[in-house]
Design goal:
This protein has 15 helices and 35 strands. The chain is α+β, with helices and mostly antiparallel strands. The protein has 4 domains: 170 residues, Galactose-binding domain-like (Jelly Rolls), CATH 2.60.120.260; 131 residues, Galactose-binding domain-like (Jelly Rolls); 329 residues, Glycosyltransferase (Alpha/alpha barrel); 80 residues, Sandwich (Maltose phosphorylase, domain 3). The strands form 7 sheets. Strands 11, 12, 15, 16, 17, 18, 21, 22, 23 and 24 form a 10-stranded mixed β-sheet that branches. The protein has a 7-stranded antiparallel β-sheet with strand order 1-13-10-2-7-4-5, with no helix packed on it. The longest helix has 23 residues.
């Protein structure tokens, strides 16, 4: 469907106040046809017809590259009356907000709060100069700083609008998943901090906003002011320094009587809210919350609740085991994904950043595709990646590109890694068709940018980002510490070229030049890097098949891990593959040891500290209770949750195959360990549910229960079985085989 309507804005500059556009119309007789509203805006919009909100999409039209803008269509037939009022309120959203490092000269910051819409009721009602605008109750709203809402403004004066030129971008129909409200969470306790502040704890770090449902004795002019935080400090006080410049505030000015409110055009990353100004007795309010929850209607009656929002993705993966700590790690990863899959795969939802970092996305994509159906989500984001890619093939650090910088190994490689993994998970080669030019352009960029032949040397890279071997002091030259940057770059160069080759073969393209390039890179790598110094160097060489002897190299990695204190030291590039290369090369016991380690540094250490999402750093909270540097310390950062891919694909053993992508056939090869009593996982493929469960039973026996909707290769106790659709049970005596 094509969409082209006039654009309008208020004739008067409303400043920070969000305008509401108004169009009244009549319809004679009973409406029995179909009414469709098609709409987009420069920022975020919320539309109502006759006082009823249109659709469930929050933060429409979503976040894309400024080179394109999505529009949405809604069936509003059921809302048409004889006399009708259509209103559209527009906020800054992502497009017009001063996002991180966005220069004041960026053209998008000077865009008006424009809207474009067509209502088709048999005749077309289009945005034009016949519409009006008025001041909305939203007096201020911005992504980082929050929202100010005055509920007393109910009938503002109607003012003139004017037609304006359309923005210089393509209009495209909705491509990604809609962002929607997903979970309602009530507080678990109310806290009086050592500083005397009143804080409400929701028990879960989340992304979203709060909902107010205020009682009938509310007085006009009463002011509610709230601040948001992820954690309390070690003394138990409200802590917001890690939000950096993001104010993350909410101000609500009450009207008389019973009323409800949710922010329109902003969101927060939080577990706690502080009542900076609150015209009610807080303890009494908390009792009301508990009673409302027990009554079963809390989402309508609870005075304060939290609303979690994320892109509308179907849950496809489920994992549990005998360890409550591992289960909590798994849940933390789910919450991290939900909180950061907000139309784009962001790094964090709380501080003055919240950007679509490419490195984080490629690190996590395998786990993401197990937990949820993310095909549509990533198809949209990868289209923006290709649009934002430079002419020479350089990939930005973030997509949409607000930083205007790129070209780092393991970050730009999202251009190859993400499409390939979406293809493997869902079996639709259209993603490769759409992204193949972007994939090979990235490799071509490396080839032209390197200072060497068949290796990627030079350039500026993030390296083994947030490895514990690299100091947090930004003044330190991290290029000379920890894993060698040229090593990481050359390893990912080899990997990306190999993925271009694989994708090209699927598409029937001539990729002979890339095949030759890959051979050259592997040979040069083996010759140049014949000694490894860090865990990440061992891991990448093994994972990307850059060594001749995998078993001895994995043994050397195991020795390195033991020498390092029997704990991981890896950062973003190495961590996703660490357990894989150990378990696939004779070191499964050590892989489980690292997984189950509770002391810092480990995956379970944050769980022991009460984390409910995945942290940005291994020690976001240090063992002594103090925090890592506030300049970069998110408590909701999904990257290290990539370990969940290993739980699904190795511990439970469910994985796709390259010769039958999309689980047309499935490989199931669980790896038990006596330190867990049982593991259970199920995954919804396009063909049905795959289930894998193992448990230790009395007498030293392992029982495997496996179910597959398609042909499967099942590997248990060094035996292979090719089976058809069905449910199967195997037994293994420890030390004896099947």
């Amino acid at each position: 469907m094509s969409f082209k309507a006039k654009w309008i804005k208020p004739k008067r500059d409303f400043g920070d106040i969000c305008p509401t556009y108004v169009r009244e119309f009549t319809f004679e007789g009973e409406f029995i046809g179909k009414a469709t509203l098609t709409i987009t805006a420069m920022g975020m919009y919320e539309a109502e017809l006759n006082g009823t909100r249109i659709g469930e999409y929050v933060f429409a039209p979503g976040w894309t590259s400024p080179k394109r803008l999505q529009y949405q269509s809604y069936d509003v037939s059921h809302l048409i009356q004889e006399k009708n009022t259509l209103t559209i309120t527009v906020g800054k959203g992502w497009l017009r907000s001063p996002l991180a490092t966005r220069a004041e000269s960026e053209p998008c910051l000077s865009l008006p709060s424009g809207v474009s819409a067509i209502l088709d009721i048999g005749r077309l009602i289009e945005t034009d100069s016949s519409w009006h605008a008025k001041e909305s109750p939203v007096r201020f709203s911005e992504i980082y700083d929050g929202e100010v809402y005055d509920a007393n403004i109910t009938s503002a004066h109607l003012e003139a609008v004017e037609e304006i030129p359309a923005p210089d971008c393509d209009l495209v129909p909705q491509e990604g998943e809609e962002i929607r409200e997903q979970d309602v969470i009530i507080p678990v306790k109310i806290i009086k901090t050592p500083k005397g502040e009143t804080v409400i704890d929701f028990g879960q770090n989340l992304t979203g906003y709060i909902a107010l449902n205020l009682p009938e004795n509310t007085q006009a002019g009463h002011v509610i002011e709230l601040s948001f935080a992820e954690v309390l400090d070690k003394e138990g006080n409200f802590y917001t320094e890690n939000y950096r410049a993001a104010k993350s505030k909410l101000k609500y000015i009450c009207r008389e009587g019973r009323q409800s409110y949710k922010p329109k055009f902003t969101f927060y990353g939080f577990r706690y809210i502080r009542l900076d100004s609150f015209p009610f007795e807080a303890e009494s309010l908390f009792h009301n919350m508990t009673a409302s929850c027990c009554s079963g209607g809390f989402q309508h009656k609870t005075p304060i609740s939290a609303i979690a929002i994320h892109s509308e993705m179907e849950r496809t993966g489920f994992f549990s085991c005998s360890s409550h700590l591992v289960n909590r790690l798994y849940e933390n990863t789910l919450w991290g994904q939900k909180g950061n899959f907000l139309d784009v795969p962001t790094d964090c939802p709380q501080r003055d950043e919240r950007l679509g970092w490419t490195g984080d996305a490629q690190v996590f994509i395998k786990t993401a595709a197990y937990n949820y159906d993310v095909e549509k989500f990533f198809t949209k984001w990868l289209a923006d990646l290709a649009l934002e890619q430079q002419q020479d093939g350089q990939v930005p650090h973030v997509v949409p590109d607000t930083i205007r910088a790129g070209g780092s190994a393991a970050w730009g490689d999202a251009a190859t890694i993400c499409p390939w993994n979406i293809y493997l998970a869902y079996g639709n080669k259209e993603i490769l068709e759409r992204q193949f030019t972007s994939m090979h352009k990235w490799v071509d960029y490396i080839t032209s940018a390197t200072q060497d032949t068949n290796l990627w040397t030079g350039g500026t890279h993030f390296g083994d980002w947030l490895s514990i071997e690299v100091p947090v002091d930004p003044a330190v030259d991290c290029q000379k510490i920890g894993t060698r940057h040229d090593f990481i770059a050359s390893a990912f160069y080899a990997h990306s070229v190999s993925l271009v080759v694989k994708a090209g073969k699927v598409l029937g393209r001539d990729i002979s030049a890339y095949e030759a390039l890959h051979v050259g890179i592997v040979n040069a790598f083996k010759k140049t890097y014949n000694k490894f110094y860090t865990q990440t160097e061992y891991v990448l060489a093994l994972q990307f098949d850059l060594v001749d002897d995998h078993i001895s190299t994995a043994k050397a990695l195991a020795d390195k891990v033991m020498a390092d204190g029997c704990h991981l030291t890896t950062g973003f590039p190495g961590t996703p593959y660490l357990l894989h290369v150990l378990s696939e090369n004779g070191q499964a016991d050590l892989a489980y040891t690292l997984l189950l380690r509770e002391e810092y540094p480990s995956w379970l250490y944050p769980v022991t500290k009460g984390a409910t999402t995945v942290w940005e750093r291994w020690d976001s909270i240090k063992p002594d209770g103090s925090f890592q540097t506030e300049s970069m310390n998110s408590f909701n950062h999904y990257a290290y949750g990539a370990v969940v891919d290993w739980l699904y694909s190795v511990a439970a053993g469910i994985r796709p195959t390259e010769d039958a992508p999309g689980y047309k056939k499935v490989h199931i090869a669980p790896k038990p360990d006596t330190r867990l009593g049982w593991v259970s996982a199920k995954y919804k493929t396009r063909h049905g549910w795959v289930q894998s469960k193992w448990q230790y039973i009395e007498g030293g026996t392992i029982r495997y229960d496996i179910e597959t909707p398609v042909e499967a290769e099942i590997c248990v106790s060094n035996q292979k079985y090719t089976v058809g659709k069905g449910a199967y049970t195997f037994y293994e005596r420890l030390g004896e085989g099947i």
